[in-house]
Structure formats: C-alpha cells, structure tokens
Amino acid sequence: MTELTKIDEYLNTHLDESIAELSRLCAQPSIAAQNLGLKECANLVSEMLTSRGFEVQVMDTNGAPVVYAERKGISTKTLLFYNHYDVQPPEPLELWESPPFEPTLRDGKLYARGVSDDKGHITSRLFAIDALLEVFGDLPCNVKFIIEGEEETSSIHLHDFIKENRKLLAADACIWEFGGVDHRDIPIQYLGMRGICYVELSVTTAEIDVHSGLGGSIFPNAAWRLVWALNTIKGPNERISIPGHYDTVIAPSKRDRQLMEAMPEVSDEYKSRYGIDSFLKGLTGGVELRLAEVFEPTCTICGLTSGYQGEGSKTVLPARASAKLDFRLVPNQTPELVLAGLRKHLDNEGFQDIEIKYLGGEPAARTDPDDPFVDLVVSTAEPVYGQPMQKIPMTGGSGPNHVFIHTLNLPVATAGVSYPGTQGHAPNENLRLDLYLKGARHIARILWAYGNQD
Amino acid sequence: MTELTKIDEYLNTHLDESIAELSRLCAQPSIAAQNLGLKECANLVSEMLTSRGFEVQVMDTNGAPVVYAERKGISTKTLLFYNHYDVQPPEPLELWESPPFEPTLRDGKLYARGVSDDKGHITSRLFAIDALLEVFGDLPCNVKFIIEGEEETSSIHLHDFIKENRKLLAADACIWEFGGVDHRDIPIQYLGMRGICYVELSVTTAEIDVHSGLGGSIFPNAAWRLVWALNTIKGPNERISIPGHYDTVIAPSKRDRQLMEAMPEVSDEYKSRYGIDSFLKGLTGGVELRLAEVFEPTCTICGLTSGYQGEGSKTVLPARASAKLDFRLVPNQTPELVLAGLRKHLDNEGFQDIEIKYLGGEPAARTDPDDPFVDLVVSTAEPVYGQPMQKIPMTGGSGPNHVFIHTLNLPVATAGVSYPGTQGHAPNENLRLDLYLKGARHIARILWAYGNQD
Asked: Comparing B2-193+364-451 with B195-249+297-360, is the CATH topology the same?
C-alpha cells in the first residue's frame, strides 16, 4: 500500500518537527484549576490549526474558551476529534526532575506537564494531518476539532456548549481525547465510561464549636450526625442502601463478559501497585474482578472533614462536618436519579439536617463494541502496533462522553499516545516518542480508511 | 474580727503592687504547647515564692519543670495549692485588642494571656500570703505549692511526679488551680471532675490513595472503614455500644441531685451562646439537663480526617482515615477500662484493622460535698462575696484531680478569681480586679480559718 508507506516515511522523517511543536505547546502553562494561561493556550492551538488550513473559531463559554476548527476533505464523511488544551496543576514541584513547563527529552521520552494529557494527543493528530496533506494534498474526509479548556475541572461548560452547537459539531464519528497501550504495549480500545455524581454532604449543629467537657452529653455533634448519615448510605456489605439505586442498572451483556474475559489478569498488579491485601466482596481476581471494577455502581467517600485535625488531642465538639462523596454510575443511572434518591433517603432516615451540594456529574455512556467505526479504528491499529487492538467495553473512570454519544449521536472510539507509565496527573508526566510516532501513524490510517470507506 | 479587718485593709491598699507582680508574670510567655519560655517562667515563679520565705525547688520532670515550695506555719495543718505557670497559645493574634504578652488595664480588667488561667490565681494566693505575713508575721498553717508547667498539654508528667513525691507533697487539704463566680457573680464550689480517655482511631487500607474511578468497587476504602467502625461505637440513640462501658458507672446520689436542683436553669443560655436548637435525648432543661451534662459518660468525635478536604471535587479513594475520640468518664470508669473495652469491641465487630492510639486520660474524681474542708472553704466565701457559695458536685470538664484525691488522699476544693467572661483559652483573656481582690480575701480567710481550726 504505497500511500501509507509514504505517510509513514513522512512521519518518520518529520518527528523532530512535531516534537518541537509539542514542546512549544507544553511550554505554555494552561492550568484550568488556577485559571492560568488558558486564553494564551487556546490562541496557540488556534494558530496551529490555522496553519494547517483549518477554519478556526475561538469560542467563548462561561469558562475557558473552546477552540473549534474544521477543514473539508475528499469524502462526505466527517470525523470529530475531541481534545483539551488545559492541564493539571504541576504541584508538587519538588518531585519533578525537570521543570514542568520546560519540556525536556530524556531516554526517548519527552517530560512536561500536559505532554500526554492532552497536548501530545493534539499535536500527534496534527502531525498525522500534516502527513496526509503532504502525501495527498488534501484530507481523506472532513475533519473537525473541538478542543476545550476545562477537562481537568470536570468539563463543566462543555455540555451546554455542545447542546448549543449541535449543527456546527455535526459529524459521523468521534475520536476521543485519549488512548494508547497497556502494560504489555498492546493497544487498547476503551468503549465506554462510567458516569459520576459528585456531592458534598455537610451538617451544622451549632454556631460555634463547643468544649467537649461541656456539651458531650447534651449537645448535638456534627461529626456524629455525618457518620450516622453516611452509614445509612452504604454498610460494610458494600451495597448502596438508597432505595431504587440499582433499579436502572443494566447488567453486562454476554458480549461484555466475552470482551472482559479476553483481558489480562490484574489482581497481582493491583495488589503490588497500591499495596492492598485483598479485594472487596470476596473477589480474588479473574473476569469477576474486572467486571466488578467497571460494571458496578460505587459510592466512594473521597474526603472527611470535621473538628480538630492536628497533632495530639484537642477537646472540641465540632459544630460542622462534611464529606465528599463520589457515586460512579453505570448505564442507565443518571446523576439526577442519584441526587433525588439520596435526598429522599436521608430524609426518611431522619437526616433532614444533612445538606447535599452537587459538585458535578454526568451519566455513563457506551459505544457498541461492534460498531463499524470501532472496528475500523481497531483494524487500522494492528499494522502499526504489530498486535491486535484489544476492546474494553467500559472503563471505571468518567468523562463527558455521554454528550458526544447521546447528544451528537456519534460512535466514540479511542486512539492515542499514552502508556501506563505516562504519569498523567502526577510529577514527571512523560510521553514515549516511539508511541507518539505510532499514535500519529494510527491516526493517519484511521482518517485514510474512513475517507476511503464509501 | 479585727485580724481579718487588718488583712482586708492590707489587700485594699496593696492591690496595685500585686497587679504589678501579676503583670510581670504575664509578660513572660510560657506556652507549653510550643515549649516556649517554660524554664524562664518557672524561675520567675520560684523567685516570687523565695521572696516570701518559701523553700523552693525547681524540679525536673521528663517535660517542663515543676516548682515546689513550702513554708511552715503556726498550726500543724498543711494546705497544698495546685497551680500551673504555663498558658495556652495566644493565637489568633489579630483578635487581641492589646498584645497578649503586654498586660494592659482597661475598664477595671487586666488583659493578658494567662492572666486568669492560671497566673492570676498564683499571684492572688501570694497576695493573700503577703497580707497574712504582714498582719501576723507568720502563716496560720503550713503551706505547700505545686506549680506545674504542662497543665495546658494534659499534665502528662504530673501523675508520675506526684506518685514519686508523695512524702514531699503530704498535706491535709488541697486548693485547686481555679475557681470563681458564675454569671450571677455567685461564688461556685466545684467538687469533682469527669475523667477522660482521649484516643485517635486510624485505619490504613492501601499504600497510596487510588483514583476513585479505578478502585471504587473493588478496593477497601479507609474512610468507609472508619465510618462503619465509629457507627458501632455509638448510634443515634446516643448510647455507647461498647459492652460493659456502663458497668462501673455510679449514679448520682440523692445529695448530688439536691445540689444540682439548687443550680440555676441553663437551657436558654446554652441555646443562645452556642446557637443550638435543641438538646439530645429529648432533654429540654431543668435538673435533668444539668445531671445529664456531667453525670453521663460521653463519646465525642472531636475530629475526622480523610482524603480530599479542599474546595470542589477530587476523585480519590483514600488510603488512610482517622478520628479523634474523647470519652468523658464518670466515677468509677477508668481510661484502662475504656481502652480495653474499645479494642475488644472493635475486634468483635470486625474492625481489627482500626488502630487505637491513646493520647491521654485520667479517671473521674470527686470530693465529698460535705467534707469539713469543703464546708470551711464555702463558709469563708460568704463574708467576701456577700452571698453563700454554691456547691456543684461535678463539672463536665476533666483535670488531674484524681491523683490529688486518690494518691495524696486530699479533699480538693476550689477558690479563685475567674468569671464566665474571663476568656480562658481565647483572645482577650482578662481578669476582673474586683474579683481578684475578693479571691485574695477568700484565700486569706481559708488559710486563717484552717490554721485556727484545731
């Protein structure tokens, strides 16, 4: 296939230029949580797209701007890339071996904050487009980009943006912002994400903290109220006690189980990586552990705060207590259902005093594992990676895929440049150059195959 | 009674000198929690006692030194004063109207950290001794002082010190470090203190925090483990569930109830001072509220700590969680009993993973409300305060009185210079000069009456 050989040749010989462009992008801090450098970074991304002949709009939202870009191709098909230009905060700085915003090459890897999540994904896609334009003078299909600046802060304005711009964003398929290989260097296709409903529970029992010698037997204690309320939400049997919480849950299908069975064993890796002795609910490993990991709703206490937290003892009866609670949702649970159920449950259990603050969420969403677009992405990976891409029907994490799958009605597939040592949200975030090149080769093949499908 | 008139005259005319001495003492910071100025303050107290003809020893402990002093008197009876020269940290500094270690007179009050707790008590006792020495040339009875430097950090070395120095500290009665009037300016006699057992519960379920999208359904969560363990210790019925916890509890006697009935109503004051709506266990006020406040064992969560505590959401599954727990004890509960019961209970409930760290404690202790020494202290108060002193059989707070009552075998009574607005552990700690003078007059009368009792 001579065209693909030419594309690979272009990519092999222009890698340094693309890494230089990625380095420029990483040198621009763009920290959503700190509202730092977002407009500057959006403009930089905009310039990069404009220079490839894209029509670009930097569009205002109530938060960071969204970069939208489109360029016509030969076929009538349209592929939408979803990416983000914002990054996680770099702290703790002292753990970085080179400064987070001074991209540095070491041992075949480029180190920088955002180099993998998600700037390397942006430039590897531009790199593939460069190769296609060089070899064919045109794109095989229409290409659109939506590159947001708030992914690391829960994409809070993306849903409205997409709902308001359905026509602009109309496409036939979507490539997600991330993708890559597993610890065996086998390419992975993630086909769904759990939803999430994140809340803060809080209770106030007095105007000020009280000396515990005074009030212990007669005053209400916010910390105890919180503990008792939480205990009614989930007990040691790990079953969420909110009535109706499991009513809309769809069990994994035979096909899901089949795909999960094909995945490698993870129990020993988890135990050694996280230092845990055993799994919940008597799970020991195998497909049952992998199914439980992603196909079961969860309720995780992410944080507890009340009263005195320093060294030693302080005899105080806390007036206020709060907990951060993260419900992971499976199809067809929704955040609205969880919120309503939680409020009713707490009221019924006598905890009208517990306030619920909704901190964000979205429903779970999945693409059919046997969707033709998914199969196109999977089949184009094998010649690049030398191994078949493995389909994973759902991951435990969450992201704004629901609005792409159910509002824009797109099949969503993943293809990217990450690997398990990429340190996405941690110090020394890095990108393997060999996987960067493979990622660009894969993206070029996807565009090529998609345009030549008709 | 011409001698007491002379004593009062001396005190009336030398008040300024005593306040000057108190100001010198308060100008010397002596913060036990920060190990700041303790030796300097011990030496200053030592000089003050030496100048009154006391034999003084500044005695080493494993912590701050103890100042011990004695001076013979006319009778064979020995009165022991327990005081402390350490103070609470002054923070938050911005809330002080004058600097905490620059004693300042305003509106008949002296403001400084420690001016009431407990330096004003020390110098008011020296002031009474000055008057007695001036009028009689001698003390009416033997007087001993034990002035420690770690009261604000739970007197952790005092028990051993007292057990090792029983002979040195031998006495016939003890005046406690605090005392004073209530919100009606009626003098109060506190006759007992609850004990305490302060522990930190903690649990570690993994070596590092895990992303909640990964582990929520399959990894143990330290925060949930802690919540469930706490829930087995006390439920919403406010009854402590540790088997045997109430076995050694002695119910208040008829006499206790009689004394509690004589006390003023507190419910409205509590509600407005602390901003609470209602009391626990259906209590609304009256003697039942006052009895519950001090005669019931408590288990107070003083603090909860786990995972993410900042603004907004972070999707983390915490590897570690901890709680500070304060058990208040009534006669004859002991910290040892509580610790053993708690460990056994957690084990039986399946929480072998919860660690218990003992942060200090002591049993409850009470002096017989009708002890002759108590009656002497009470009867000598009335001519000073113009109203009968009110006996309170027990307070809700805790202190190291057990070792004085049960190791040194002393009746312990209170007499002092505090009032409800004294702001003991808060900014703008202050001392009313009128009550300082009354406190010294009362102490002089106690010593005088005690020496002339035989």
From this structure: no
Place of tokens 């730092």: A36
- Looking at CATH, the fold of the domain delimited by B195-249+297-360 is given as Alpha-Beta Plaits (3.30.70)
Please answer whether residues B414 and B179 qualify as being in contact, where contact means their C-beta atoms are separated by less than 8 angstroms: yes
Domain limits of chain B?
2-193+364-451, 195-249+297-360
CA distance B323 to B303: 5
By CA distance, what is B230's nearest residue in A?
A227
SS3 B362: strand
Which residues from B are below 8 Å from A395, CB to CB? 213
Answer for the pair A105, A118: CB distance below 8 angstroms, yes or no: no
DSSP 3-state of A17: helix
> A426 or A62, which is more confident?
A62
- Suggest the residue from A151, A205, A212, A348 to mutate for an interface test with chain B (most B CBs closer than 10 A): A212
Domain A195-249+297-362 has CATH 3.30.70.260: no
Predicted pLDDT at A212:
85
C-alpha distance from residue B287 to each of A219, B258, B259, B265 (Å): 16, 9, 10, 8
User: Selecting from 3.40.630.10, 3.40.50.2300, 3.40.449.10, 3.40.50.620, what CATH number does the domain B2-193+364-451 have?
Assistant: 3.40.630.10
CA distance A424 to chain B (A): 12
ipTM of this complex prediction, to 2 decimal places: 0.90
Residue A30, number of CB atoms within 10 A of its CB: 28
pLDDT at B454: 59
Q: Is the dihedral of CA B313, A280, A225, A348 positive or negative?
A: positive
Cβ–Cβ contact B303 with A under 8 A: yes
B222 vs A210: CA distance, rounded Å: 28
Out of A226, A305, A312, closest to residue B359 by CB: A312
B282 CB-near residues (< 8 Å, 6+ apart):
none
Cβ(A108)–Cβ(A100) below 8 Å: no
Q: Could A306 and B303 be called an inter-chain contact, meaning their C-beta atoms sit closer than 8 Å? A: yes
Predicted confidence at residue A92, as pLDDT, reads: 83
| CB contact burial B83-121 (16+ within 10 A = b; e otherwise) | bbbbbbbbeeeeebeeebbebbeeeebbbbbbbbbbbbb
Residues of B (65-104) whose Cβ lies below 8 Å from A:
none
Chain B: residue nearest A301 by CA? B223
Distance CA A445, CA A453 (A): 12
Residue B1's pLDDT band, with cuts at 50, 70 and 90, is low
B268: closest CA of chain A, how far (Å): 13
Residues from chain B that touch A235, judged by Cβ atoms under 8 A, are 228
Kindly state whether A314 is in contact with chain B, defined as any CB-CB distance less than 8 angstroms: yes
pLDDT at B145 over 90: yes
Distance of CA B259 to the CA centre of its chain: 21
Distance separating alpha carbons of residues B247 and B337, to the nearest angstrom: 10
- The residues with which A307 forms a beta bridge, in sequence order, are B303
pLDDT tens column, A346-376: 999 999 999 999 998 999 999 999 999 999 9
pLDDT at residue A454 above 70?
Answer: no
- Amino acid B3: pLDDT: 87
Q: What is the distance in angstroms between the Cα of B13 and the nearest Cα belonging to chain A? A: 39
Q: Are A173 and A375 in contact (CB under 8 A)?
A: no
| Record: contact B206-A275, CB cut-off 8 A | yes
Q: What's the confidence (pLDDT) of residue A312? A: 82
CA distance A226 to chain B (A): 9
Cα A173 from chain centre: 18
Task: Say whether A324 and B307 touch across the interface (CB within 8 A).
Answer: yes
Asked whether A297 and A330 are in contact (CB, 8 A), the reply is: yes
